[in-house]
Amino acid sequence: MKTADQYLESLKSLKIEAHVMGEKTAEPGGHGLVGPSRKAVAFTYEAAHNPESRDTLRAVSHLCNAEVNRFTHLHQSAEDLVKKIKMQRYCGAMTGCCFQRCVGLDAANAIYSTTFDCDRKHGTQFHDRFRNYWAWIQKEDLVVDGAMTDPKGDRSKRPKDQLDPDLFLRVKERKPGDGVIISGAKLHQTGMLNSHEILVMPTMSMRSGEESWAICCAVPINTPGVRYIYGRQASDTRKLEHDTFDVGNPIFGGQEVMTVFEDVFVPEERVFLDGQVDFAGTLVERFASYHRQSYGGCKVGVGDVLIGATELIARMNGVEKASHVREKIVEMIHLNETLYCCGLACSSQGYPTPAGNYQVDLLLANVCKLNVTRFPYEIARLATDVAGGLLGTMPSAADLNDPEVGPYIRKYLAANPNFDVVDRMKVLRLIENLTIGAGAVGYLVESMHGAGPPAAQRIMIGRQAALDDKVDRIKGLLSVS
Ligand SMILES: Cc1cc2nc3c(=O)[nH]c(=O)nc-3n(C[C@H](O)[C@H](O)[C@H](O)COP(=O)(O)OP(=O)(O)OC[C@H]3O[C@@H](n4cnc5c(N)ncnc54)[C@H](O)[C@@H]3O)c2cc1C
Ligand code: SF4
């Protein structure tokens, strides 16, 4: 298993290029905007070696019969699914941001069982290919980007009806016995520039006639023809300032990248679905369920950070004993722990797939994610309430350090004398980061849209709820027909 330093070195050797704020950047990890997100991924390596967390971050792989980082593990039991949630809460609570490594993990678990089912039905050879590929990922301890979301163009039209067929990533050319050439883009890619590999998946269910869009394959990050355009986050340029004080989270951050595939060749041994339209939807559904489960861990961990910061600012402001403040903090904890309960529930009710790995309970995973689209917003609202208006109006670190106005800031921002005024400002910046700053991309916008918007979960909840069974039971109870 790699150490954090070995991980950072391994990325440098890949020599990728990205466009960051209008400039071609040769080693994006060294860029001020990208660096904090790379540190967040490096934490998942460090934690696998740290005595406090190594047991949480490690699992024994059935593919290579050895210990691997749990971020590469194919779940072998419901207990594994529960351990995943605990690992994600831990990482979220330690970094206060998205640590990016779970999308690839969720993709792998979905592809593992889907390829097995596809081979059984169509006589294809995808499952063994994927097993070999993933055993290599585990042995090398790599980060894998899970690339599902297509640009999708006009949402009222199917892929083949778009003016530009590349608006859904597709197979442009098939070279039998050799591989495929793909073309298109994937948007919002979490942690892309911190990854070694990309797992491309279809974005939605496909129908007959849409075979070109039913593609799942693996692409090395430094493949010719793949371009990276860095996504902006609110107040991100604060990360470029000499003094990191105003960033809020001075060490860690998230990352999303627009990724363009321009006639990219993928050799056959890296193709895991090609034209089997009946399995595109299965793959999307399974991936989405795993990732909806994931949020019951990671967003709870970030919620821990926001609750801790809110309690601390209440103490710094001298209001921590006020009854309405106590009530609000308790409400924040209640909402956060409810999300954790959902994450644990859908994990503990997990079941084995025919391929042997474990799938989360689909209904409960969707309930989990639907709550995630709401509760972090309410937690953020309560944090904003308790923190006070300074959250949106505080002077900058540059002014704090200015010899002329700095003393006024220290004088007038003093509150509870047991706390240092600059420490109070740091806590306010962290709350600002998570509620309205760069951290809100991961804590709020991603809670809404990541793994699909609320309408997608409502559809799945409606499908999974076995309503007819409930109706039949009432009919039996009341002897009505
Ligand atoms: C921070 C962040 C990180 C992400 N990370 C990843 C990642 O790592 N990998 C990845 O693949 N994706 C990632 N995503 C993408 C995420 O899965 C999508 O944003 C999500 O699925 C919504 O898709 P969209 O953004 O295209 O919005 P849209 O699909 O346009 O949805 C916007 C609204 O329109 C509605 N809508 C859309 N189409 C229709 C329709 N046909 N009929 C009726 N209503 C419709 C939706 O329900 C929603 O309310 C990430 C997103 C965010 C915000
Ligand atoms: S949003 Fe959460 S689950 Fe998804 S990659 Fe980030 S930390 Fe992991």
CATH architecture of the domain at 282-472: Up-down Bundle
Q: State the share of residues found in helices, binned by percent.
A: 40-55%
Distance between the termini: 61 Å
Instruction: Specify the oligomeric state.
Output: single chain
**Radius of gyration (Å):** 23 Å
Attached small molecules: flavin-adenine dinucleotide, iron/sulfur cluster
CATH topology of the domain at 282-472: Butyryl-CoA Dehydrogenase, subunit A, domain 3
Class of the domain at 282-472 in CATH?
Mainly Alpha
What's the shape?
Answer: globular
- The strands making up the biggest β-sheet line up spatially as 5-8-9-12
Structural class, from secondary structure content?
alpha+beta
Counted by DSSP, the helix tally is 17
Strand content: 5-15%
Largest sheet: 4 strands, mixed
User: Would you tell me the overall average pLDDT?
Assistant: 98
Query: Tally of extended strands?
Result: 14
Write the layout of secondary structure elements.
Blueprint: H1 4-12, E1 18-20, E2 23-25, H2 35-46, H3 54-57, E3 58-60, E4 67-69, H4 78-95, H5 102-122, H6 126-140, E5 144-147, E6 170-175, E7 179-190, E8 197-200, E9 215-220, E10 226-230, E11 256-267, E12 271-274, H7 277-317, H8 323-348, E13 351-352, E14 358-359, H9 362-372, H10 375-387, H11 390-393, H12 397-400, H13 406-412, H14 421-435, H15 439-449, H16 454-464, H17 467-478
Bound molecules: flavin-adenine dinucleotide (FAD) and iron/sulfur cluster (SF4).
Would you give an account of this structure?
The chain has 481 residues and is an alpha+beta fold. It has a domain at 282-472: Butyryl-CoA Dehydrogenase, subunit A, domain 3 (Up-down Bundle). The chain has helices at residues 4-12, 35-46, 54-57, 78-95, 102-122, 126-140, 277-317, 323-348, 362-372, 375-387, 390-393, 397-400, 406-412, 421-435, 439-449, 454-464, 467-478; strands at 18-20, 23-25, 58-60, 67-69, 144-147, 170-175, 179-190, 197-200, 215-220, 226-230, 256-267, 271-274, 351-352, 358-359. A four-stranded mixed β-sheet has the order 5-8-9-12. A four-stranded antiparallel β-sheet has the order 6-7-11-10, with no helix packed on it. A two-stranded antiparallel sheet has the order 1-2. The longest helix is centred in the middle third of the chain and has 41 residues, at 277-317. Iron/sulfur cluster binds at residues 88, 98-100, 102-103, 190, 294-295, 298, 446, 450.
